[in-house]
Description:
By secondary structure, the protein is mainly α. Helices cover 66% and strands 2% of the residues.
Amino acid sequence: MRRDSLTAGIRAGIPFALAAGLLAASFGVIAEPVLGAGATLAMSAFVFAGSAQFGSLAVLAGGGGLAAAVGAAVLLNARYLPMGIALAPSLRGRTLRRAAYGEAMIDASWVMANRGGGRFDPDFLVGATLPSYPAWVGGTAVGVFAGDLIADPADLGLDALFPAFFLALLVSGELRSGAVPVVVALLGAAIGLALTPLTPVGVPVLAASAAALLGLRGAEARREGPRSRDPAEHPEIEGDPVG
């Protein structure tokens, strides 16, 4: 593992970790009355996936059963399948080592570790994830044990953090690469908004992701571009990316 990439990832991940901590506090506030303190903390410690946790909590709070809550979480986290497939060619080593890198993947670190041309810096990805885990679990604990002080997260605007977080990733990443990503983003948003009142939790996310198929047009040409550059310009993704 390259320490310079790991350190750079940690530095890049700190701002996102601070936002994750605030979001986790709002989760702790609203989850504790439904799940109890222990289950809420355990969920953040072992699941560590904001969308899945909020989605399953919404099902349980609405009177749904455990199976429906787990199903909602699985649907929401299904996006990690294509993300993992995209990351896989940049990984080296044995199966367990590759799986460990995949386990360290979260939305923010996946985006920040993207080096273009279908390549990722796995060590940077791990570093960018590291600050978020203690922030997420610690923020949940703050929400659970100081929930009376926070009262309603919406009063502090914490309910807007989650969509704002993903919007920031989108604007700072894919939307900078041309008109097609903008069209894909707008179409995905339209699909999600249309299906949200009509379908179970998680389905709008998966359906909206189908809009990304538009991005396949010209993808091969974009992948070929970075490969033609001087390898010295991209030392972090040439050769063995894991070290």
